[in-house]
Amino acid sequence: MLPCASMSGRRSSRLKLVVAMAGTGFKVAVGALVLATPMLGVWLASSLAAHSGRSTALPIIAGLLAFPAAPLAWDFWSEHRRARKQVTRERILTFADRLLLRTFTVSFTLIAAMLLVRPALAFTALSTRGDWMLDGRSGPTVDRARRALFAVAGGLEWLYELAHRNRYEKLIEDDSSAPGPAPTGSPGPTPTPPPTPTPSPGPTPSPSPTPSPDPTPSPTPEAKPAAPPGWPDPVALHPLVAQIPAGDEGNLEAVARFIRAHEPNPRARIKALHDYVADRIAYDAEALADDKIPPQGAQSVFAARKGVCAGYANLLRAMAKVTGDEITVVVGDARTDVDEIGGGGHAWNAARIDGQWYLLDATWDAGHVNGRTFTKSYRTDYFLTPPEIFGVDHFPEQERWQLKSRALTRGEFMRQPMLRARFFSHGFRLEKPDRSQVTVAETMDVELDNPRGAFVLASFARKGAAADARGDRCEVRPGPRVGVSCTLPGSGVFRVQLFAGPKQFGSYEHVGTFEAVSSQ
Description:
Helix content is about 40%, strand content about 20%.
């Protein structure tokens, strides 16, 4: 019997040891998790500070309150109260346990407050400046750390989406026949249009550094998009747009039937639809400014001859149904030179031509908006634009409509420099900076490859200044490699804008925006 009792005792001892080790491991894991919460709070607060151009030192100092100052003060006050009340019963929790619990409570409360008060801003700050402590550093270890930080930030995208609503989504007409299959991969080269009668070119849009009805573009550091051959189309309306009989202009279906009857080529027919909508519909800037947007159904917009982006997109899809073409509406966010890094709500279209999907935005090709004024300025920058360029300033809610082999995350979209499609049509390649917002000591530098010899101007203004405020000029060094230097006055966040034109003494148009945080 003794050997059996001895074996049972050894098994019991081993079991107790395993339980004790498991308990210790659990406590260590919980302790590490709890102690990480103050670090997360400091990271969030300091990223918000970096994004808004404030000192990151204060959030770090404040983090010491979460651990250990506030928990220690809390425990000291608790002990003081017990002594005053002459409480003699033994505590259930040890000092270490109480310190961990109070650290977690204080830190979690601070983090929740920052996330809930401004969830969209918190996500934007973490996604764009969450690696502020790595500024100026490079190497494999730094790159891994940066990817890890942005991966954690990406986990909060759901919070951003809860707080961020696309005001145009509810204005999109229901379409039960919307395409079901998910488009995959990047489209090949834009199909070559068939020969068409040479139109008498309308007036070339007068380039202007004025914001357009909705958002702006930017390339990723890894893949710098370049304008492919054949894009954009010449700035000339399809001839049929000028030939539509006056008697048909009062009826949406009649206009679409006329285009269908006179243009057999699918690619050219969709160009005619795009051009008609971009040319005939004015952007309803006053309704947008007053936040009183009327119904945006296709028939309503066609009758009023004005609408916002949802109206342009609805009308283009409705006309395509009559012509027998496949066009759908895409909703998401987009950026202009006056938008925040994350952009604002927008709607555009995707069209299928010969089995391949392409992207187009008739709203942005119609003209530009300044306050309550819409200026008509037809162009083709956003007609069948390559996804790598279209995705610099357009981010669809449904990932499939990026039409890319590797879709961007929202954080990657926000980190892209805010470049317009016109930037790429000028042949520019951005070499520096590679982010939408960067920290500089005093001077913001921009470098561009300029193989076509375009001319560049640049200016800067403090962020938050009126959209039409005249900024200070930056120094520009022309040539095949353009250098831009902006000497910033004092600390804060500044917006640096680039303008380009084919002639030195001519019209220039806005092609890009960067945010510079001056740390003077």
